[in-house]
Each structure stands twice: as structure tokens, then as C-alpha cells.
Amino acid sequence: MTDTVLVTGLSGFIGSHVTAKLLEKGFAVRGTVRNKSKGEKIVEALAANGSDTSNLELVEADLEKDAGWAEAVAGCRYIQHIASPFPLEAPSDREALVPAARAGAQRVLEHGFSSGVERIVMTSSLVSMMGQPGREAKMIITEEDWSDPDWKPLTAYPVSKTRAELSAWAYVKAQEIEKKLVTVCPGLVLGPDTYQNGGASLGLLKAMLEGEFPMTPKIAFPIVDIRDCASIHVAAMTAESTGGRRLMAAGKTYWLSEVADILREAYPEAKKLPKSEMPNFMVKLVALFDDRVKSVLPDLGIFHEADAAYVTSLTGVVPRPSKDAILRAAESLIEHGDVTAV
Description:
This protein is α/β, with parallel strands linked by helices. It contains 13 helices and 14 strands.
């Protein structure tokens, strides 16, 4: 009998790639979407790119509502809980995204485990690890690191991811079923936009290529290819050694200025790429008027490096070079006509 996996947020960038990997490995997939018509477009894109979608079904479910979740989890052996609010513009209220993210995680965990699901893999983020006061100029991120959601410089997205993941671990600890949960904490997710749904993830490269900012802020993040991120999710679901662990999905770290240099070398005709770094004082000044810039202030000037070798040991996934992820993302943006400056 084919095992069924529930994938929440199937229509998202990570969700669609995880779904493709699950179908490739012979699992049946039930995907939750808030809007079935939007989900059907991803199903069509999966089929067009070689996935056998005969074992894929869609159900409508909202993280902020109870309706539909009992039916969604019924008969599933595993859950990939990927859905989470990710606005294009950060809310000014730093707690604004917490109710949906935290309550959504609790709904999925409660319904899933009560129905007999063997393991839940939950997508968190490296931002649930990095946001700490008093960091050095170079921060080595480890599995034990946690962001402090009460640290005032943190903005809405990292606060929501941290509080949601903390609540998930608190739940399984209280139930004494920690081994049934795994969280995956991706860095900056790039790579091919195979299903043309990588908007928020690839938005940074699009902005750089189209000249939306003439200089880059001095920030650096570990980068992971979406295909490797999906492989880690799928491996974490069944590997015995991953139970109760936080797995970083992260490769090499680049400063944004280095990302711009990589793109410039590949696309010398892209004249709008930023050519210099913005001084920190100027970033702080611009942040007074632009919430998008304000969100980078906690990480300004800090080189974040993920100590993620243990993830390869546990899952067998060896991440592609981060440079390749950058170039494949840019290639997709150009192929799909999302960038016109090249």
C-alpha cells in the first residue's frame, strides 16, 4: 500500500519541490492549499515537468481555521508542514504573523498526531536561530542556537518563525514524543524556479538585477539550493536518526555584495546590478523610512556561517555549491521573463 504524505502549503516554492521529490520516491501526496485553483496551476506545472501526479490530490485548509484539518490528515503516515505566512512586505507589528504561524503549527501537530501520523517534518528557518543580541562579527550557527523573539530589533517574520518552532517543540516535549518531530531550518533558498512560484524567495535577486537598490547592505546569509532543501525535508521524514533534531538546510555563506559580483560575472550586460556596499549608517537611515530595509538591521555587518555538516551525516544530502544556486535562480528569472534588465 502506498504511504500518503500530507504537504501543507503545496503551492509554495519549498512545498512544490518537496511534493515533486515525494512523488518521485513513490509516495502519494495530499496537498493543502488555501485556494484550489491556485493549487491546480502548480499540479499542472508539476506534471509538465515530469512528475506523475496521479497520486496527488488537493484539499483546501487554512492555518487560521479548524475546518478541514481532520479530513486532511486522515490516512496520512507522514506530514510535511511547510505552510507559514511570508508577506512580501513586513508588517510593522512584530507579533502580527505569530497567531497564524503558531496556531497553524499547533493545528497540524494536534490533528496529525491524534490521527496516528508517525512523523511530522516542519519547515522553520535559520532566522529562528540567528536573532540574538551580542553576536560577534562572525556567527557560527549551531543546532542549539535560538533566536530571542523578545529581542526588540527582530521584525515580524523571524519572530513568527521562532515562536512557531518553539511552540512545536514545547508540544512534543509535553506529549513525550520529541522523536516524532523534525524541523528543517533553511537559509536563503535559491535555485531553479521550476514551477514559477519562487516569488518571495527569488525576489532579492530580481531586485538586484533590476536595480531596485544601487548599493547592497552589508549582510550575509548561508544559501541553499531549493532541490537540496527539498531533499533534506524528504530524507528527514523517514531517517531514524533525524527524529527530534533541528536540521539546517544551508550551504556556503555569501555577502550580498559577493552575490552581486557572481551575477555580474555571469551577466556582464546586467548594468543595474549594485556595484558597491551601502555604509551601515546609511542603511540605518534608510530603515527609518523603509520597513523592508528595517528587517535587515539585526543582521547588519554579521557574517552568518552554518555549522551544518551533521545534516549530511544524518540525511545523506550533500548540498550543491551555493554559487550554483545563485546562478540557477537568476537563469530561471531570465527564462521566465521575470527580469527584463538582462
